[in-house]
Recover the amino acids of this structure.
């Protein structure tokens, strides 16, 4: 089969690789009809995340048709059209029983990325996301093996196109969990740092939950313009405004917003010092976005972090967070928990995640898709790949770096 493989920094290639096979009784084999490039994939593309090996198949946002099932699979059957969550969860461990699916204790045989790990068990394995998370093949391919198929895949109705439901695999639940963690409700004020796909999904979900004012901070004008037109955000370009948090405070009666969402993560465009420290591996993540989020949030408010972080962070300003009595909520998304609810919102027309798609490409052009997305070319917001061409499986047309 054809699959997009990692070969080194800024080097990904579509190659012929062996077809996947059933390995466990609760596996399925999925024929991929649509897969997307995520901002988390770009972290790996840029060589920022260790644990990758040449030939690894990338991709954790995908969906398709069930081609084969193991003898213990009861949730789906051959021919079902399903979306697959990016985390792999067993469904019966301590955390899965609490519906904290990304903390599953049984699907990641590797160590994860916690630095001060002690003897704590690893969290869930992930598709296409380094050998720290189990080394599972990803979904930017013609076929993919999906373990734990009685827990992950969600059957979707044929009436909804691939474009409408594909993002149930990651960025839509991630944006939704971010606003739920932020406590967004009717009348809330919110600041979203990062006008990338996760930032867009957070804005869409915040609007759905009744947010009154949404500030969005980024430095790509075309992304901010889209967010302003689509979600009614108040755009702030940090290339033009030295201190976005100060602008937000002045616009909220000198209090700050009820909640800030960091939809950027560890590659936030920070100071020269932070860049140098990260490059020489003395720091794992830039603290720029988090410092701004802390500063922009009112006393007693919440900072919600869906953006990926790892390692040390320079200038975290924990004292400021303490003095303001802030609550922090963060972590990988418990996708399986949110997928059914979000599918209902899509079916009812309350959410239209497909509007963010700017590029449809065949899988054969995946390397170009990575470059377009990474370099912010052609006003790229989100790239969807299809193995058989730019339409498949019912799909329809549809500084600070952004996650998603």
């Amino acid at each position: 089969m054809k699959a997009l493989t990692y070969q080194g920094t800024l080097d990904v290639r579509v190659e012929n690789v062996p077809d996947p096979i059933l390995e466990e009784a609760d596996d399925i084999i999925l024929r991929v009809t649509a897969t997307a490039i995520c901002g988390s994939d770009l972290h790996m593309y840029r060589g920022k995340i260790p644990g990758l090996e040449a030939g690894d198949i990338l991709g954790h946002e995908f969906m398709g048709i069930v081609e084969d099932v193991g003898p213990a699979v009861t949730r789906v059957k051959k021919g079902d059209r399903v979306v697959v969550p990016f985390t792999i969860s067993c469904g019966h461990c301590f955390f899965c029983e609490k519906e904290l699916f990304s903390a599953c204790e049984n699907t990641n045989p590797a160590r994860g990325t916690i630095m001060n790990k002690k003897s704590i068990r690893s969290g869930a394995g992930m598709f296409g996301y380094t050998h720290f998370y189990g080394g599972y093949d990803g979904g930017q391919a013609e076929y993919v093996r999906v373990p734990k198929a009685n827990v992950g895949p969600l059957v979707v109705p044929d009436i909804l196109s691939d474009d409408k439901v594909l993002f149930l695999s990651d960025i839509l639940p991630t944006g939704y969990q971010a606003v739920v963690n932020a406590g967004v409700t009717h009348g809330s004020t919110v600041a979203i740092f990062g006008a990338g796909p996760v930032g867009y999904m957070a804005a869409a979900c915040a609007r759905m939950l009744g947010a009154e004012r949404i500030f969005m901070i980024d430095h790509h004008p075309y992304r901010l313009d889209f967010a302003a037109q689509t979600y009614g955000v108040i755009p702030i370009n940090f290339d033009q405004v030295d201190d976005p948090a100060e602008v937000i405070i002045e616009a909220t009666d000198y209090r700050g917003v009820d909640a800030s969402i960091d939809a950027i993560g560890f590659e936030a465009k920070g100071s020269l010092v932070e860049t140098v420290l990260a490059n020489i591996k003395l720091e794992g993540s830039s603290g720029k976005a988090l410092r701004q989020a802390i500063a922009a949030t009112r006393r007693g408010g919440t900072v919600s972090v869906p953006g990926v972080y790892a390692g040390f962070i320079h200038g975290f300003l924990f004292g400021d967070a303490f003095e303001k009595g802030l609550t922090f909520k963060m972590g990988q998304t418990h996708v399986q928990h949110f997928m059914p609810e979000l599918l209902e919102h899509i079916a009812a027309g309350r959410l239209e995640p497909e509007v963010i798609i700017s590029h449809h490409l065949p899988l054969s052009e995946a390397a170009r898709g990575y470059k377009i997305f990474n370099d912010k070319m052609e006003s790229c917001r989100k790239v969807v790949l299809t193995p058989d061409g730019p339409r498949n499986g019912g799909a329809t047309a549809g500084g600070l770096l952004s996650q998603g």
